[in-house]
Amino acid sequence: MDYRQLGSSGLRVPVLSFGTATFGGTGPLFGAWGRSDETEARRLVDVCLEAGVTLFDTADVYSNGASESVLGAAIKGRRDRVLISTKTGLPMGDGPQDWGASRSRLIRAVEDSLRRLGTDYVDLLQLHAFDASTPTEEVMGALDTLIAAGKVRYVGVSNYPGWQLMKAQGIADRNGSPRLVAHQVYYSLIGRAYEADLMPVGADQGVGALVWSPLGWGRLTGKIGRDRPIPRGQPPA
């Protein structure tokens, strides 16, 4: 396995990571992706570690926290051998404090994720989506607090607009707080919008790319072709 620096950070990550959205799958969306229980998840983690894949990506919204819980059980006793990336920011309920990236929401969400994962820190926390209702100064300040408390090692974003990523980096520089080092983005041979703006921003600002759906929602696996139509319910590229 090859390893690379994550953006401008000192964190070395494998070139391949393992997404755990199929762990504990429930509901119409995640249940359709997969339903790996703790036993199956432990087997998959074993396979990954044997191949040198040490980075496991999850999110609180994946099956309403079940993915984090199953991942935590699967890595029990070997936390020092793995890197955990999780995400927060998308709605976890119907209440006014159940979504977004306010200071209150981020601190509570991280505490909940740590409890489900059975660990006292995550290696990488990513904001799952841009929250236009919370000032960027508040967001970056909350991330700084979480890092200072030892609950988060590095921070990044997911599916962010380029202008907001630059604004966040500028605020971090002005306040002398940790910068964003990762951006989880959709990028594939049939979905290359990342190249136009976000890729040069990442290169300039030292923000590494964590690519999701590099096979274009399965379209690049060969199962879909001119004589093999897109299955019903398949998301657009």
General description of the model:
The protein has helices spanning 30-33, 38-51, 66-74, 103-117, 136-148, 162-175, 198-205, and strands spanning 3-5, 12-14, 18-19, 55-57, 83-88, 122-127, 152-158, 182-186, 208-212. With 237 residues, it is of the alpha/beta class. The strands form two sheets. Strands 3-4-5-6-7-8-9 form a seven-stranded parallel sheet, with helices on one face. A two-stranded antiparallel sheet has the order 1-2. The protein is globular and about 55 Å long.
Biggest sheet, open or closed, and with what strands and sense?
Answer: 7 strands, parallel
Mean pLDDT: 94
Q: Give, in spatial order, the strands making up the sheet with the most strands.
A: 3-4-5-6-7-8-9
Ranges where pLDDT stays below 50 over 5 or more residues in a row are none
**H/E series, N to C?**
EEEHHEHEHEHEHEHE
Number of helices: 7
Helical content class = 25-40%
Radius of gyration: 18 Å
Q: Percent of residues in beta strands?
A: 15-25%
Count of beta strands: 9
Briefly, what is this?
The chain is 32% helix and 17% strand. It is α/β, with parallel strands linked by helices and 237 residues long.
Which helices and strands, and how do they pair?
Blueprint: E1 3-5, E2 12-14, E3 18-19, H1 30-33, H2 38-51, E4 55-57, H3 66-74, E5 83-88, H4 103-117, E6 122-127, H5 136-148, E7 152-158, H6 162-175, E8 182-186, H7 198-205, E9 208-212
Helix pairs in contact: 2-3, 3-4, 4-5
